[in-house]
Amino acid sequence: MTTKMRPFGKTISLDEARERIDAAVRPIDRTEHVALAGADGRVLAEDVLATADVPPFARAAMDGYAVRAEDTAGASKDHARVLKRIETLYTGQVTQRTVGAGECIEIATGAPMPPGADAVVIVEDTDGEASGAVRVFAAVQPGQNIGRQGADIRSGQRVLQAGTTLTPSRVGAMAALGLSHAAVYARPRIAILSTGNEIVEPGGPLAPGQIYDVNRFTLAAVAAEHGAEPVTYRTANDTIEDLSRALDAALQEDLLVFSGGSSVGERDLILDLLASRGEVIFHGISVKPGKPTAFGRVSGKLFFGMPGYPASCLTNAYILLAPVLRRMARLAPQPPRTVTLPLSARVASAPGRHQFYTVKVVNGEAVPAFKSSGDITSMSQADGYIEITAAENFVEKGTAVEVTLF
What we know:
It is built from seven helices and 28 strands. It has helices spanning about 15-25, 170-175, 215-225, 240-250, 270-275, 310-330, 375-380; strands at about 30-35, 50, 60, 65, 80-90, 105, 120, 125-130, 135, 145, 160, 180-185, 190-195, 200, 210, 230, 255-260, 280-285, 285-290, 295-300, 300-305, 340, 345-350, 355-360, 365-370, 385-390, 395, 400-405. It starts with 13 loop residues before the first helix and ends with a strand.
């Protein structure tokens, strides 16, 4: 039987692909409440307002003695002022006594300031005696060594704004307010599945002509790393019927990402499915690897048809899918980590295609690592990639190149 090959129509540039994707993507609106212990990295869905002062009381900022500042006037190493210790106060304790003239209360850092006292003399500037007499060798001013009530957060203050990505310090601010949960935007749920009769779940034996599934795991890892919740589905066979079944099941998620079946062979049916069930926004990008990438919409859900070759699939997951996930999850774009290094060997590029060429960083040089689109080690043994524009046919050895690190 003669195999029918369906050539690509006109491919589009990487810039145009990104523009079409950007025009289609919308941030997620669904919200949920999560426990504060799991809120790091989530995006706030509402403002956080303080309902009380933090700290809720004036407290000692240092270990020492709570005093009336006026009672320490003139104190020095040569002329100590002697005060009477009337109590010892630890954190979590509140005294009922008031510090009067010539009196002091021994106090621990963080303990509430007692009535009558307006400063703390640090313990290093004192000499306490068993009799209760405390010699003070340094004068203090009112408010010295005290953390005032509300010094950190004032009641009614907007502490965090909706749309803010929570970090450990921001989670800490919410905990300081006594909050146990945070209202956040839900993580977009991403349906991920591989297609192809030859694809087998790792862990079992391979029959002749079969290969283990790679893309489902790499795509799921990218999704989780960029604020999404990957939802993996079983592999779909190369039939319209099985692909339609898989599509129907996956439509309950927020975004669909299928790999394989988006090239030009007779059995590459993703494009037919997308065209019959929804809208093809583009098919084919002038990049290497990753040319056979499809993007469209089915029943209001965006759909990526990623290349089946592992290196192509993962490259486009980094270049195209990750920014989409971050925008859907309302996360800020991830700034690239780059380093400029000399290229260790001459690299040729496919004419007319924007190439992402993987490299290793070895002894201060960018060493070519790309093998082929089907080899996952083109990515797993690389530290990053360089970009070669469509107008360049090669990059000479020794050229300073910008390496974007994974």
